[in-house]
Amino acid sequence: MRRREFGAGATAALLAATGCGAPEDAGVDDGGVDDSAVEGRGSRPGSPIVLTLLSHYASEPLKSALQSAVDAWNATHRRVKVRTTAVKFTDLLTTYMVRQAAGQGADILHPYCLWTGQLVQAGVLRPAPPEAVRRIRRDFSPAAVTASSVHGTVYGYPTEVQTYALFYNRRLLRAAGYSGPPRTWRELEEAAYRTARRDRHGNTLVQGFGLSRFDDSTVVGQTLALLAARGGSLLTPDGRWTAIDSAAGRDVFDLERRLIDRGASDTGSTLPKAFPSGQVAMAISAGWWTAVLRGLMGRAYRDVGVAPVPGLAAGDRGTLATGFLLGVNSRCRHPEAAWEFLRWLNAVPVPARARGGDNGRGRDGDRGGDSGRQVSVTRMSALQVSVGSMTGRADDMRALLGPGSGSDPNLGPFLDALRYADPEPNGPRAQRVKSLLRKNIETVWTGRRSVDEALRLATRQLNQELGR
Amino acid sequence: MPRIRRRFPWMSYALVGIGAVVTLVPFLDMLLTSFKGPGEYGRLPYRFLPEAFDLANYRDAIRQLNLPLLFRNSVIATGLVTGSILMTSSLAGYALAKLRFPGRDLIFRLVLSTMMFPPFIFFIPHFLILVHWPGAGGNDLLGRGGAGLTVSLAALVMPFLVSGFGIFLMRQFMISIPDEMLEAARIDGAGEFTVWWRIVMPQTKPVAVTLALLTFVNAWNEYIWALLVATANPRLMTLPVGIQMLQSYLDPDRTVPVMMAGLVLSILPILLLFLILQKHYIRGVMLSGLK
Amino acid sequence: MARCGRAGRGTARRGTAPRSAASSGTATAGRGPARAAQRRQTVIAYLFLTPTLLFFAVFLALPLLFAVLLAQSRWAGFNLADIEPVGLDNFTDLFAQGSTFLTPILTNTLLYAIGTVVIALSGSVVIANCINNLRFQGVWRTLYFLPIVTTVVAVGNVWKYMYEPGGLVNGALNALGLPSVAFLQDPDTALPSVVAVQAWASVGTAILILTAGLKSIPETYYEAAELDGADQFTIFWRITLPLLRPSLLFVCITQFITGLQSFALINVMTGDGGPGDATNVAALEIYQQAFTYGDWGVAGAAAFVLFLVIALITMAQLWLFRRKGEDA
C-alpha cells in the first residue's frame, strides 16, 4: 500500500526541529523527532506524560491531518501530551523493528495490518484492554476487526481501511471508443489493447493497463484484487497453506502476462507518475490514490473514473481490503494514557462537516466548502475522509461519503467494496509471504518464468514460510 | 618514470579519453540535473543540459535536509573515527614495530586476521552490543531495559574506532625508523611514551596523513551502518543517509533534481579535500596494494 | 636540539629511572642485567596496545561468539532471555527446497563479484597501461579515482536515474536510434546494470594498484624487447602482464571479496534487491532478515554461510595464484 509521499523530504525535514538536541541526551522513549521542538519528558513529577506516536504520515496531506488532531488533543489535555513522528511507509516496518530492538520504540504505533502477526510475535504490540475491544467489535466492520487481530485477540483500533478498485481515464477510453469502464475481464483486456500506444523507439506513450511495480503492496495488491474478483484467494481458509496455484490464480497470472506481452502494460514505467500524466488508461489501486491524483492532476482529475474491479462475468464482485491499526507498544510506560488518547481519537463521535474528499488544499475550486452538512463521526473518521481514505466504521463512512455528502463520487466504489472485500492475511510471516509472492509475480511479468513454474515455486516458497 | 614512446600514443589517448568521459559524465549529469526545473527531469526526449540554471533545487535540498544537523553528525563522527584510528594505530603500531615483549607475534597475527572478517557478520552483534551496553541510555548493569548507546553519537563511531589495516600500515612504516634514533633518545632518558610522541610520531607524518585521509573518506561515506543507526534514532542521521531519505515516489520530476542538488552539496567537501590532498590519498591506496 | 630538550623533560617526569640499564636493555634484550627494563617494556607495550586489545575483545571476539550462537537460535523478539537454541534448523531452512537463499541469492552474489572483478580488472589493466604511456599521469589517475571518494548514495542514485527511461543512458540509446531498455526493471538486465556501476566505481583503485605494479617492472625488459623488434601488443602480453601478476592477484582477491560482501550499492539502486530477487545478494538478504523481519537466527546463519563461502574462495584464489606463480 503506497502512501502519499510526494515531498518525501518531509522525513528528513522533521529533523529540523531538534537540530540542537544534544546527541548524548538519553531520552529513552524518544522514538524520533517531532515538530513541536522542546517539550518536557514524562519522567519528572509534575511535568506531563509525553507519548510518542510513530506513523508513516510523513507527507501532506496526511501529516497535517494527523497533526491537527493531535494538536486538538494537546490543547485540551494537560497531563498527557502526544508527539507525532513519521517515516516513509517503505521504511516503517524496519523502523518499528529496529527501534524496538534499540529500546526506542514509540509509545503508539500505527502499523500496516499485514504486520500485526509479526509485531505480536516479536512482542511489540500490546493487546487492547477489554473496554476498547468491546467498542472495536461493536463499531467497526468485521474485515477491519479481523485485520487488527491475531488469533482472536484485538491489538488496536482499525484506523484506516483501503479497498481496491479500477481507476480509469475517461478521455483515453473515450478516444478508443468506450463510453464506460469495463465490467468483465474480457472487456478490460480488449480496452487495454485498444488504448495502448508506443512511439517509433518503442517508448510507451500510453499504457492500456498500468501494472505498478513500486513495492510489495502495489504489486501484490493489484494482483490479489484481481484474484478476489475472479473468486480466488491467497490462502486456504485455515490460513496454513497457500491457494495461489488454482484456476483463479492461474487466470490472474495469465492475464497480467498477456497484458505485458501484447504491449498494453509497460512495467518499466512508473505508474504513479504515468497515470496522472494521462499516459495510462486503466489501473487497479486503493482508495487513497484518489486524493493523490486529485492533488497531482488538478482539473484533469475530471477525466478520472473509478469502477469495481471487473470479474469474469459482469456483476461478479470481489476485491482486497487492507488497512492500518493504531495500537500501543508493549514497552509503553503509560498504557492507560495511550489507550485513552486512542479512544478519544477513534471512538468518540464529535460533530463534523461532511465534505468527503476535500483534502484541504483547496486545489479544485469547483467544490465549495459550504456543501457539507453536520454529522457526528469520530475524529479519525473525519481525518481519514479528509485525506481521501476510510475508516472501518461503516456508519461514519456512510454519513461522510454517502449520497448527498458532496464528497468525491469516485470514493463510492471503495465504500461499496467494504461489504465484499477480503481482508489481507496477517500471520507472523505475512510480510515475508507477501514479498515472496511479489517476487514470483514479477518473474511472470518479466517472462523469466512461465506462469506454471511461477505458481509452483510460489506455492513451495509460501508454504515453507507459512510453516515456519 | 614514464617511458617515452617514439610515436604519439594515439591509441592510449583514445582509450584513456573514452574511459575519462565514462568516469566524468555521471558527475556532470548529477550537476546538470540538479539545475533542472519542475517537470524537466524525465521528459522525453532526454536532454543533457538544463533549460535554465535554476537554483531552487538547492534551496529545497537545504530546506528539506536540515543540513546543519547532518553535517554536524557527519563531521563529528568522521572526526572521532579518524582521530581514534590514528591514535590507536600509531600506539599499537609502535608497540608492534619497536618494542620487544612476549606475545608480540601473536598479537600482530591477530591484527592481521581482523582484516579477514567481512563487516556484515558484525552488523547484528554490534547493534545488539550497543543496545545492551551496560549502564548506558537507561540500561541497568546487565544492559537491559534501555536504549544503550543507540541514543548517542557513540553508536555511529564505536564499531570503527580501531582499524587492523591502520595498525598494520603504521607498524610497517615504523619498522623502517632506525633503532639508533630511538636508542639515542632513550639514552637521554626519554620514556617510551616520550620516544613515541616526540620521536616516532613526527617521522610518521606522511603515513599518518595518508591513513587519516583514507579513514576520513571511508568514514564520511559510511552508509549501511549509519542507515541502521539513523533508523534507530533519526537524530544521528548522517549526510549520505539523509540524502537517501530524500528518495520519493510520487513526484520524481521534482525530487530527482532536488536529490541531485543534495548529493552535489554532500560530495563537494570530500571531493575538494581529495583534490587538494590526492597525493597522500593515492599513496595510501598504493601502499595497501603492497602489503 | 629541541628534541633533546623535550627528552630531558621526559626524564624529569620519570624521576630517577636507572637510565643506563633501561637503554642497554632495549638495545640488546636478553644480554643480562636488563630483566627489569624488559619487564618495564612489556608493561609499556601492553599499555600501548590496551585500547586496541579492548576494542578487539568487545567488537571482534564477542560479536563472533554471538554470531555463532545466534546462527543456532530462534529468536523472535527483542528480549535476550527469549533466545531459544534450535541447533542447525536455521541452516536447513536456508537450504530447504524452494528456499531463495541458494538460488538466486547466493548465485547472484557470486555473479555480482565475478562480474565486477572481470570488468574492473580488464578495464583497469588496459587503462593503467595506457596511462603509463601518457603525460600528466597524475591528472588521469586522479580523475579515474573520483568515484572512489564519492559516497555510494551518490554513485547509486546518479546511475539509477541515468538508467531510467528518461535518463541519460536511454537518452543516448534513443539518440542512436536504439529502443529504450528498462535496465533496472528487467531482471535480465538488472544485475548486469548494477555490476557495471560497481565496476565503474572500483576501476580507480585497481588502476592505482596496477600502476604501482607497472612502475616496478624494470625498464630494461622493455628495452630488450624493443631491440628484438617486438610490437606493443606482444610487449604487453609477454612482459607486462606476467610481471604484473602480484598486483593483479591483489586486485583480484580484494575486489572479489568486496564484491561478495557488498550490498550498499544494491540497496541504494534497487532497494530490496528487485525486480523479484534479480539483484538480491546474500548480505542484503541478511540485513533484511534481521532488521525488517526480526529473524535474527536465519540472518545469523546466512551470515555464517556467506563467511564460509568467502573464506573458501579466498583460499582457493590464493592457492591457485601461488601455484601458477611457481610454474612461471
UniProtKB/TrEMBL annotation, chain A:
Superkingdom field: Bacteria
Record SUPFAM superfamilies: Periplasmic binding protein-like II
Record InterPro entries: SBP
GO terms for MF: maltose binding
Biased composition (Basic and acidic residues): 355-370
Keyword Transport among record annotations: yes
Keywords from the UniProt entry: Signal, Transport
GO cellular component, one term: ATP-binding cassette (ABC) transporter complex, substrate-binding subunit-containing
Keyword Ribosomal protein included in the entry's annotation: no
Region (Disordered): 25-44, 353-375
Bias kind Acidic residues: ranges: 26-37
Entry's Gene Ontology BP terms: maltodextrin transmembrane transport; maltose transport
Annotated Pfam families: SBP_bac_1
Entry similarity comment: Belongs to the bacterial solute-binding protein 1 family.
Protein's name in the database: Extracellular solute-binding protein
Phylogenetic placement of the source organism: Bacteria, Bacillati, Actinomycetota, Actinomycetes, Kitasatosporales
UniProtKB/TrEMBL annotation, chain B:
Similarity-based family: Belongs to the binding-protein-dependent transport system permease family.
Pfam families: BPD_transp_1 (PF00528)
Main location as per UniProt: membrane
A cellular component term, taken from the record's GO annotations: plasma membrane
Keywords on record: Cell membrane, Membrane, Transmembrane, Transmembrane helix, Transport
Topology with respect to the bilayer: Multi-pass membrane protein
Protein name: Carbohydrate ABC transporter permease
Source organism per UniProt: Streptomyces piniterrae
UniProt xrefs under InterPro entries: MetI-like, MetI-like_sf
Signal peptide range in chain numbering: none
Residues covered by the ABC transmembrane type-1 domain: 71-277
GO biological process: transmembrane transport
Membrane-crossing residue ranges in chain numbering: 12-35, 75-97, 106-129, 149-170, 207-230, 256-277
Coiled coil residues, start to end: none
Location in the cell: Cell membrane
